[in-house]
Write a structure and sequence with these properties.
Largest sheet: 5 strands, antiparallel
Distance between the termini: 60 Å
Strand content: 35-45%
Number of strands: 18
Order of helices and strands: HEEEEEEEEHEEEEEEEEEE
Shape: elongated
Number of domains: 2
Helix content: 10-25%
Length: 234
C-alpha cells in the first residue's frame, strides 16, 4: 500500500534522501568540532600582557589570541615543526600547522626536528619494536626496544607535565641507573638539572602511569635548544 501522505514512492525517496543529508551534516559537524579542539601549538615564550595564555600552554586549533602593542609571542607548531615569532598589536588564530595573523608581524622558522620525528612515526607504523645489540660491556647484549615516539635533536629533553608526580627516565639500550625526579608545573626542563643524555641513546620516560620511548639523535646538539626540537609529550 502506498503512503499517500508522503506522496507515494517519491515521498519515501525524499524522506530517505533527507535522512542521508542530515546524517552527512552531523558527521561534518562532528569532524569540525574534533578539528577545533586539537592541540596544535605550544607557547614557547611570551612578552607583554596577553589574556588567556601563558608560557608552556598547549593551544587548540581555532583559538584566537589578541596581542597588544609591544607584545611578543613565540609559538611552536608540533605537526609542522615550525617556530613562529609574532610581534606587535594584532590577532593570532591557531591553525594545524601555522597561525593566521592579522595586524601583527609574523616570522616563521622551519626547524630540523620535523624530519626526525616523521621518521620515528613512520618506523613505528611498520613495527612495534626494534632489535638492538648493545655495546660490549654495556650489560645488555640484546634487547627489544619499542620504536621511539620522537627523535630529539638536543641532549636535554623537555617533558610536558599534566600534573605533579614522580618522573623517571630509564635508559633502554645500555644498563644505567634509573633517574628519578619530582616534577610540577607545565614543563620539566631536564637541561636545568645540569645533566645531559647521550646522543644515540634510547630512553623510556614515565610519569603518573603514562610512559613513552624517545631517542636522542646521533646528531643532537649539546644541552638545550628550541623547545620543539627536544619536546617529549605523553
Amino acid at each position: 500500500m502506498l503512503d499517500c501522505r508522503g506522496g507515494g514512492k517519491g515521498g519515501i525517496m525524499k524522506q530517505a534522501l533527507g535522512a542521508m543529508l542530515l546524517a552527512a551534516v552531523a558527521m561534518l559537524g562532528a569532524g569540525a568540532a574534533q578539528a577545533q579542539g586539537k592541540q596544535a601549538a605550544v607557547v614557547e615564550d611570551l612578552t607583554g600582557k596577553v589574556a588567556g595564555i601563558e608560557v608552556f600552554d598547549f593551544l587548540d586549533t581555532g583559538k584566537t589570541i589578541t596581542l597588544p602593542a609591544g607584545a611578543r609571542l613565540v609559538l611552536g607548531y608540533m605537526q609542522s615543526c615550525t617556530r613562529e615569532t609574532i610581534t606587535g598589536a594584532g590577532s593570532v588564530t591557531i591553525g594545524e600547522g601555522g597561525s593566521k595573523v592579522t595586524g601583527a608581524k609574523l616570522q616563521q622558522e622551519q626547524l630540523k626536528c620535523a624530519a626526525a620525528n616523521q621518521l620515528a612515526q613512520g618506523q613505528a607504523g611498520k613495527s612495534a619494536a626494534m632489535v638492538f645489540r648493545g655495546q660490549p660491556g654495556s650489560g645488555r647484549k640484546k634487547a627489544d626496544i619499542p620504536q621511539p615516539s620522537a627523535v630529539l635533536m638536543y641532549t636535554a629533553p623537555a617533558f610536558a607535565v599534566a600534573k605533579p608526580g614522580q618522573l623517571t627516565i630509564e635508559r633502554l639500550d645500555v644498563a644505567e641507573t634509573v633517574q628519578v625526579f619530582q616534577v610540577s608545573g607545565k614543563l620539566f626542563d631536564y637541561g636545568k638539572t645540569g645533566k645531559k643524555l647521550d646522543a644515540g641513546g634510547f630512553y623510556r620516560v614515565e610519569l603518573n602511569g603514562q610512559s613513552t620511548v624517545f631517542q636522542i639523535s646521533l646528531e643532537a646538539g649539546e644541552g638545550s635548544g628550541p623547545l620543539l626540537m627536544r619536546l617529549v609529550r605523553f
